[in-house]
Amino acid sequence: MINSLDQLGEKEILNRLKKFMAIGQIDDDTAQVNPLGKDILINTDVLVEDVHFSKETTSAEDIGWRAITTNLSDLASSGVDQILGITVGMITPPKTEWSWVEGVYTGIKTALDKFGGQLIGGDCSSGKQKVLAITAIGTVGCIRLHRSHALDGDFLVTTGPHGLSRLGLALLLSDQSIKKKQLSEHLKTQAINAHQRPNPPLEALRALERCKPKGLPWRAAGTDSSDGLLEAVENLCESSNCEAILDLKRLPRAQSWPLGTHWDNWCMNGGEDFELVLSLPPTWANALLKTFPSCQQIGYMRSGPAQVTWDNGKAIQKSNLLKFKHF
Amino acid sequence: MINSLDQLGEKEILNRLKKFMAIGQIDDDTAQVNPLGKDILINTDVLVEDVHFSKETTSAEDIGWRAITTNLSDLASSGVDQILGITVGMITPPKTEWSWVEGVYTGIKTALDKFGGQLIGGDCSSGKQKVLAITAIGTVGCIRLHRSHALDGDFLVTTGPHGLSRLGLALLLSDQSIKKKQLSEHLKTQAINAHQRPNPPLEALRALERCKPKGLPWRAAGTDSSDGLLEAVENLCESSNCEAILDLKRLPRAQSWPLGTHWDNWCMNGGEDFELVLSLPPTWANALLKTFPSCQQIGYMRSGPAQVTWDNGKAIQKSNLLKFKHF
Questions:
Q1: What is the predicted pLDDT for the residue at A13?
Q2: Of A82, A112, A140, which closes a domain?
């Protein structure tokens, strides 16, 4: 039985991928989409085996799902309206089994069916290591979020708890550092799910749009926490040239999340949480906190140097923190 | 002196890449472009070291240039009007020198300055092998070329000579098969240039648009010859369900291109020639042949099985041909 990609050949691989593609886009050199007269948002992410995912912790379907979440999360944090389409560049070693490729595309398709958008094109090649390069495009919605739009007096809000994905990874790897820790079954399930099947913050974005108080302009700063919550806040500070004051008592911890430096670090720097991190006027922030239950205020913005400080005045000790890095 | 990417770190890498990016697009999670109310074309290509390029034959700048050409060639063969922007996903081993990355982006920028479009975003990561994943988007022009639009009676036309890039590669590798062959200096220079600095067929597309006879509808079939001339014609046949008859005497050879099976094979299957391969009404084809000197009619289309046949009735012996493959 023929199972590996080098046995199948490029033509047969492309033929088998057709069932995942939007009709009409499988036969040409390019895909065509209609942005309905609107500006478009575009985002490209690369995911590399043993850097962004490993077969120990992530099935092929989960990899496909997470690739879409990563990408749509970036679009959401810029204020996307409709997801128009996704292209997938896939690189695999020649001996890769077809079942792995099919799994990834099944995950992609399942995520797109849930979050919107179609698979409209792509490219494939052999290579030494598995790689996914995903580009998503969508139309601009009613608020265009920028990192640089934070202002003095804004509340800092995030749309959900942080650290869950990092805990999920630790659980899947049977990490020694958590072996002795008593964790609730609910937290464990939630954490593994957050790692394997994270959702892009599209519902949170819709809530943000719906709850804007009348009279306020469509101005808010935003990014996502895919590289960690602290990194997200730092990016807002740097782009907006503002100082962020974080409230130590208001770290966005999940229910029954343990206390302690180790757990605070995972909350702040775990990465891959895919929540919105927003800087917006207090009235709008309060409206969002009321309407979207998982939202939490984590601090506020003020004029000052582009840095993040605890509300007790202490500087954040970066050297103690686990930064989320790809180099 | 710090030179390798793992010494620089991700933040410094991104900082250094800013000079290559369009203003205003460097600071957010996504890029935004305005398609001026038009539909858009989108294309993704992956280029992998030792599959699509090797350091023996291609400098970093040439890799960047060729990546753009590959991509814009696909957009051209679908009928692009304005190139809106390019995103670049780059994967490199951690020990890669910064000078290599800078070289690739310099090549990308030089090509975009020549052909249109801006670098608007991307992503980078470490990995075992160098990879470029390029996505280009552009607006749809006055003719939307499809592979499936060929009709019985069309002329088959290509916009330039074929095999040059393959010869250029052989020259750069000091390939034994051509060692004893006397080749003109002009042909050698042209071939190496075609391999290292190929142009996407945007001028040919503009000529095609300009010379359409009045009264004819905007209907033509098209693709590019990036995977070889024969593969391009086969793709038109399969998508349009037509038979292509190729004229043996009219192979699109460059000036002073040698005769013989080996050279015919390179012309037909060399790959990476980045010319348009068009199927269009005879009057439009003749107008194009007059207005665009490097154009050549290579055959015609007729009702029949989806296959390519020589005009003497002989089937094309595929087993003798070098197919251009990535698996």
A1: 84
A2: A140
Contact B75 A40 (CB under 8 A): no
- The length of chain B is 327
Q: Is residue A327 part of a domain?
A: no
* B203 three-state secondary structure: helix
Rg of chain B over all Cα atoms, to the nearest angstrom: 21
B11 touches chain A (CB under 8 A): no
Task: Determine the distance in angstroms separating the CA of B117 from the nearest CA of chain A, rounded to an integer.
Answer: 14
* Contacting residues of B for A148, CB less than 8 Å apart: 27-28
A36 CB within 8 Å of a chain B CB: no
Q: pLDDT of A235-260, one tens digit each? A: 999 999 999 999 989 999 999 999 99
Asked whether residue A24 carries a pLDDT value surpassing 60, the answer given is no
Please, which residues have CB within 8 angstroms of residue B26's CB and are 6 or more apart in sequence?
B18
Identify all chain B residues contacting A29, using CB atoms and an 8 Å cutoff: 43, 74-75, 77-78, 147, 223-224
Residue A36 sits in a domain of what CATH number?
A: 3.30.1330.10
Is B240 within 8 Å of chain A by CB? no
3-state class (DSSP) for residue A128: coil
Question: Is B47 within a domain?
Answer: yes
Closest to B91 measured CA to CA, from A43, A42, A49: A49
Instruction: Quote the pTM value.
Output: 0.91
